[in-house]
Write a structure and sequence with these properties.
The chain contains six helices and four strands, in the order αααβαββαβα. Helix content is 39%, strand content 19%. The chain is α+β, with helices and mostly antiparallel strands and 160 residues long. It has a four-stranded antiparallel beta sheet, covered by helices on one side. The chain folds into two domains: 49 residues, Winged helix-like DNA-binding domain superfamily/Winged helix DNA-binding domain (Arc Repressor Mutant, subunit A, Orthogonal Bundle); 79 residues, Lrp/AsnC effector binding domain/regulation of amino acid metabolism (RAM) domain (Alpha-Beta Plaits, 2-Layer Sandwich). It is elongated. One of its GO terms (cellular component) is cytosol.
């Protein structure tokens, strides 16, 4: 993943404030040539800096109102296979490898407690999974964000 310069950060900040802004509007707002803005956006999309659009859709809007985090312990050398199997479960939003006693942190969503139970059973049925501990997500206090980091990279002249 390439590092962003201040101009990239300013462009991304402008997009966070108005995600539907046209290239022309962005170029006017930032004082950049239209071609420069278009080229930078194309590069940012192409090298994976911009996350896929589906990450903006909230699971709650799809009926998945219950969120949970599963700490998963995996048999040695089974991380790849277990991760692949987890990716096949639609309710799995994210899988992160950890150091320490827990091997994987799995973010899942469910429609209700019974659905979460079935997801837990499906995870436990994956070959190589040894143990699963589940913690309900009660409330999100800080949404996933990168805006403060973008502002820092863009320079001091950018406000919160």
């Amino acid at each position: 993943m390439p590092e962003l310069d201040a101009t990239d950060a300013r462009l991304l900040l402008a997009l966070t404030e108005d995600p539907r802004a046209s290239v022309m509007a962005l170029s006017q707002r930032l004082g950049l040539a239209r071609g420069t803005v278009q080229a930078r956006l194309t590069r940012l999309e192409g090298n994976g800096v911009l996350a896929p659009l589906d990450q903006r859709v909230r699971p709650e809007a799809l009926g998945y109102r219950l969120g949970a985090y599963m700490s998963v312990q995996v048999a040695q050398r089974g991380l790849g296979e277990v991760s692949d199997a987890l990716a096949d479960l639609p309710e799995v939003l994210e899988v992160t490898g950890l150091s320490g006693a827990t091997d994987l942190l799995v973010h899942v969503v469910a429609t209700d407690a019974d659905h979460l139970w079935r997801i837990t059973e499906a995870v436990l049925a994956i070959p190589g999974v040894q143990r699963v501990d589940t913690a309900l997500a009660m409330r999100r206090f800080v949404e996933r964000r990168t805006r403060p980091l973008l502002a820092r990279t863009a320079g001091d002249d950018v406000r919160r």
